[in-house]
Design goal:
The complex is a heterodimer of chains A (403) and B (295).
Chain A: H1 2-14, E1 29-35, H2 46-60, E2 69-75, H3 80-92, E3 98-101, H4 105-118, E4 121-124, E5 141-143, H5 148-161, E6 166-172, H6 175-190, E7 194-201, H7 209-218, E8 222-226, H8 230-241, E9 250-253, H9 258-264, H10 266-269, E10 273-276, H11 284-296, H12 304-323, H13 328-337, E11 340-342, E12 346-350, E13 356-357, E14 360-365, E15 378-384, H14 386-389, H15 399-402
Parallel strand pairs in A: 1-2, 1-3, 3-4, 4-5, 6-7, 6-8, 8-9
Antiparallel strand pairs in A: 10-14, 11-12, 12-13, 14-15
Chain B: E1 3-4, E2 7-8, H1 9-40, H2 47-64, H3 69-90, H4 100-122, E3 138-140, E4 145-147, H5 148-170, H6 172-182, H7 184-189, H8 194-216, H9 226-241, H10 246-266, H11 274-285
Antiparallel strand pairs in B: 1-2, 3-4
Classes of the chains: A alpha/beta (403), B mainly alpha (295).
């Protein structure tokens, strides 16, 4: 990691002297991408997020505009203590101005607090917990791509309304799983459904058969998977083995990424319904982005997290340019003030509570026969308009809003 | 419906069976480790990586050579075993005279390198591998649906474990092996090629890991980190069973699988930790492990 940072540093230094903007601290805008680079979330965020950030800086034309931008990255290993230590080091010693991505809600909540204390900026793409714009909302944080409320609202609603009214949850036992389970449960109950049981498994579990058996015994119509990455793929794969779907129950993957579908293969993943805020095959702009991205990230097509990092960095640089400052609190305020516009999410806004607003898509995984090319995986079943995709501003209990 | 500790008996039977299935992976992996430690005195931390390589070998055989699961069951352990032999010849054999710690460090480093290379090449989401057609589906046992593939895993690993135990404890070849660990120079004086025997033993231990990897491929994602997650638990199993005890590792493997399965019913949050709690307790009471001998 040190070596990678060193390489980034030398490349940037080699770019030669550029006239520094007056208010930019040390004359450099320093972006830190902090995520899981080695474990179960490494494909859906990981190095891909670094690639996305780099593409955003290039496309913004920072160099031509005389802005000096550096990108560093680190692996938080899904441990809040490791993530916190890196964040402090970055802010205090390495003069990082903004931290990006931070999948794993546990780590994100920790870095959220540190960022607020230090008056820096945090743009969350990877983490899911809706608390980041709820109780834990901060004037220094924007939650970009998706959140547990949006997933619950998209997937939960769609399933309950088509008759899936009794649920059993298999939940990852940390901040993210708890938040997702809570938000989906609320949707289920609101629509007259019932939760028959739940079980919580440690993060990064290999064998789900015990939990699946409990789900089967509950006789719930829907087995909701409130987990992500490798945990979700293992649950889905093993659910097929235990005949969950054949037995008349349905699986609801509450957070599934395109990299998970790729890893499972269409024969196993077909028919899954879930919510995404980005799909690479939406329009010409997203396709062009995906093509460039895949060339630089070992053929992996961008997940919504990668797209979110690109979009967030783009908007961040716009705000810094307009403000001529990289002061964390001021830039975030400016980002909320300016409307967003980028090729991946189109036009959007950032709300007072730090929630970035854009449409969400309810997607269904294609059958193997329907898929015409590699990574051709989704059918868009419904588009949830931007104003309905996220939790209404007044329901989040965010202290910033009450003022 | 009758209940035990508030859990319906039906569910309990199901969980016991699941525990047995997971235990069979623990047993097979800890068996390989025990064989290697017992005969070579090497703490083989690369075992998890070798298990992962077995799963990947199965995937490659299918993708590149069109060879399905049954061939993989035969070929993957051979291939990975040969890699193990090369490893032993070129690196490990230099360490026999030194402290255990050096073998541990070398194999641990190797595991990190191998896993890193695979992760860099294949990402962390894993690759798909389907259950062979002959073993798909399941049968309803009344208290649970038992997938045919899982039943196969239990039967196959029990057979493998028994066979290994039998060869080492009850045959002439096994007697040579055990004698060679007690007193290599004496056995060599009888005309037995001890270094070659040790090399082959390491290869065999590694092949066992790869075999477990092939068995695991259809159940778990074929993932570069699948071994890293498992190896720590397996080491705990070996320590509880008694370092180097063949029978100990088999029995403990199955038993701990069951304990873990039960934990997943009563207090699932602790299912990752329960084995280590048991390990600590066992080490306090019997430092040599349940089946180990004090040296």
């Amino acid at each position: 990691m040190v070596k990678r940072i060193a390489i980034v540093l030398t490349t940037v230094l080699a770019l030669g002297p550029v006239a520094a903007l007056a208010q930019i601290s040390d004359g450099v805008i320093k972006i830190g991408v902090l995520n899981d680079q080695s474990s179960l979330y490494a494909d859906l965020a990981g190095q891909g997020s670094v690639v996305a950030a780099r593409m955003a800086v290039e496309d913004f034309g920072a160099e031509k505009k005389g802005m000096k931008v550096e990108i560093v990255s680190a692996d938080h290993q899904n441990k809040p203590d490791v993530g916190s230590a890196i964040a402090r080091q970055w802010y205090d010693v390495d003069k990082v101005d903004v931290i990006l991505d931070v999948p794993n809600s546990g780590v994100a909540l920790a870095v959220n607090q540190i960022t607020r204390d230090k008056g820096k900026a945090l743009l969350v793409s990877g983490a899911a917990t809706a608390d980041l714009t709820g109780k834990a909302c901060s004037p220094n944080t924007i939650h970009w791509t998706y959140d547990t409320w949006a997933l619950a609202n998209g997937t939960g609603n769609a399933i309950v309304k088509t008759g899936g009214d009794t649920w059993f949850f298999i939940t990852a036992d940390y901040a993210f799983g708890h938040a997702l389970e809570r938000d989906v449960e609320a949707v289920v109950l609101k629509n007259g459904g019932k939760v028959l049981g739940k079980v919580r498994h440690p993060l990064n579990t290999a064998d789900f058969s015990s939990f699946l058996l409990q789900a089967q015994a509950s006789k719930a119509k829907i087995v909701g998977l409130a987990n992500a990455g490798g945990d979700t793929t293992n649950s889905i794969k093993q659910a097929a083995e235990f005949g969950i779907v054949k037995g008349g129950q349905s699986l609801a993957g509450l957070l599934v990424f395109i990299t998970d579908v790729h890893g499972l293969g269409l024969p196993t993943a077909q028919g899954l319904i879930f919510t995404e805020t980005f799909y690479w095959d939406l329009n010409d702009k997203t396709r062009a982005f995906a093509k460039r991205f895949a060339e630089r990230d070992k053929g992996i097509h961008p997940t919504m997290i990668h797209a979110g990092v690109y979009s967030a960095v783009t908007h961040y640089l716009k705000a810094v340019e307009a403000l001529k400052s990289d002061d964390g609190t001021k830039v975030i305020a400016k980002m909320k003030e300016m409307p967003t516009d980028d090729p991946l999410f189109g036009k959007g806004t950032v709300r007072a509570d730090g929630r970035k607003i854009h449409p969400a898509y309810l997607v269904e995984v294609k059958k193997p026969a329907e898929s015409k090319a590699p990574w051709d995986y989704y059918k868009i079943r419904a588009t949830i308009p931007a104003d309905q995709a996220f939790r209404p501003l007044d329901q989040g209990e965010c202290p910033l809003v009450k003022k | 419906m009758s209940t035990i500790f508030g859990i319906p008996t039906q569910a309990l039977f199901g969980q016991l069976l699941i525990g047995l299935i997971n235990g069979s992976f623990y047993a097979m992996l800890s068996l390989g480790l025990s064989v290697i430690f017992g005969l070579l005195n090497i703490i083989n931390f690369a075992h998890g990586a070798q298990y992962m390589m077995g799963a990947f070998a199965a995937y490659f055989l299918l993708q590149w050579a069109g060879l399905g699961y049954w061939w993989a069951l035969l070929v993957a352990p051979l291939v990975v075993g040969v890699i193990g032999v090369v490893l032993e010849r070129t690196m490990l054999k230099r360490l026999y005279a030194l402290d255990h710690l050096y073998g541990l460090l070398l194999t641990f480093g190797l595991a990190l390198v191998i896993q890193g290379l695979f992760r860099n090449q294949f990402g962390s989401s894993g690759l798909p591998y389907q259950i062979p057609p002959a073993l798909t589906g399941g049968r309803n046992l009344g208290f649970m649906v038992l997938p045919n593939y899982r039943a196969w895993v239990v039967v196959f690993s029990l057979a493998t474990c028994f066979l290994t135990w039998y060869v080492i404890e009850r045959t002439k070849l096994g007697a040579y092996l055990r004698a060679a660990t007690e007193n290599p120079s004496l056995v060599q004086a009888f005309g037995v090629n001890v270094p070659r025997m040790i090399t082959l033993t390491y290869g065999f231990g590694v092949a066992l890991a790869a075999l477990a990897g092939v068995l695991a491929a259809p159940i778990y994602q074929v993932n570069p980190l699948m071994g890293a997650d498992l190896i720590i638990v397996v080491f705990a199993v070996v320590v509880i069973g008694g370092m180097g005890s063949i029978l100990g590792s088999i029995v403990t493997g199955f038993a701990l699988g069951i304990v873990e399965g039960l934990t997943k019913v009563f207090y699932p949050e602790a299912s990752n930790t329960v084995i280590f709690v048991i390990m600590a307790l066992v080490l306090l009471v019997r430092p040599a492990g349940l089946f180990g001998r004090e040296k």
